[in-house]
Design a protein that fits this description.
Strand content: 5-15%
Helix content: 40-55%
Shape: elongated
CATH class of the largest domain: Alpha Beta
Order of helices and strands: HEHEHHEHEHEHE
Number of domains: 2
Radius of gyration: 28 Å
CATH topology of the largest domain: Rossmann fold
Oligomer: single chain
Largest sheet: 6 strands, mixed
Number of strands: 6
CATH superfamily of the largest domain: HUPs
Length: 242
């Protein structure tokens, strides 16, 4: 049949054919592999970019001058943090101090002697919480202490690398209270090549990983534990140091 003899219906049933091999088993596997590789590269880029943001945020943290709040809380993890918090209390930056997450075997007198704090200051204005076992527990222990005393603004004292996760958990547990960061800076990360120090880099990566997991947990809606020895985030456990 010549082209001149063809009728309009002669090619009507001829449908465009997909490229050969597109829907073959091998073709599907190649398509899936490319998508998996692209997704992996994207995830790596996002994680790397997030770490750069985290590192910049941590290294940029500075203790505010002349700051005041209703109260002060310090998350245990080193006596330097407690010393800074007691110094803020002594200078009138807050009315009262909670030391959150103390080990049950640690006595108030031991803390006072190691930090060389005034006995009168300890007896007057320091509470110690023994119930928190992790950062989530710190947030719950601190939140119930805040509500027991009716505070509206609180200074948060912890290490600079630990501050972002601490604030995340605190604001998750208590979105009403104003939490003011007061980072404890052991060394000025802005003046050293911290990324070349294996110990510092390991700490930063570990803390960043915890921030990522905490964020994903909240996005997905996974229920977090109480982080408390009692398993109850409403029972008051902090008690005066005296």
């Amino acid at each position: 049949m010549t082209p001149a003899q063809m009728t309009p219906d002669d090619g009507a049933d001829r449908k465009p054919q997909p490229p050969k091999g597109l829907f073959s088993r091998q073709g599907r596997l190649r398509w899936i592999a490319r998508r998996v590789i692209m997704a992996g590269v994207l995830c790596i880029a996002l994680l790397f970019g997030g770490f750069l943001w985290f590192a910049n945020a941590v290294t940029s943290l500075k203790a505010p001058d002349g700051v005041k709040a209703d109260a002060i809380v310090v998350l245990t993890g080193g006596y330097l943090r407690i010393e800074q918090a007691l110094g803020l209390l002594r200078d009138g930056a807050g009315q009262r101090l909670l030391i959150s997450g103390a080990h049950p075997s640690t006595t108030p007198n031991q803390i006072r002697k190691v930090t060389q704090a005034s006995p009168d200051l300890f007896a007057c204005c320091v509470d110690i919480g023994y119930d928190a076992i992790d950062t989530i527990g710190n947030a719950n222990e601190i939140t119930r202490w805040i509500h027991d005393h009716g505070y509206k603004s609180v200074l948060v004292v912890t290490n600079n690398y630990h501050m972002l996760r601490s604030l995340h958990e605190l604001r998750r547990a208590d979105p009403v209270t104003e939490f003011i960061a007061y980072p404890v800076i052991n060394s000025d990360l802005t003046r050293k090549a911290w990324f070349a120090d294996p110990d510092v880099l390991r700490t930063m990566l570990a803390e960043y990983g915890k921030v990522v997991l905490a964020t994903l947990r909240d996005w997905v809606g996974i229920e977090r534990g109480t982080g408390l020895r009692t398993g109850n985030d409403t029972k008051t456990a902090a008690r005066p140091a005296s």
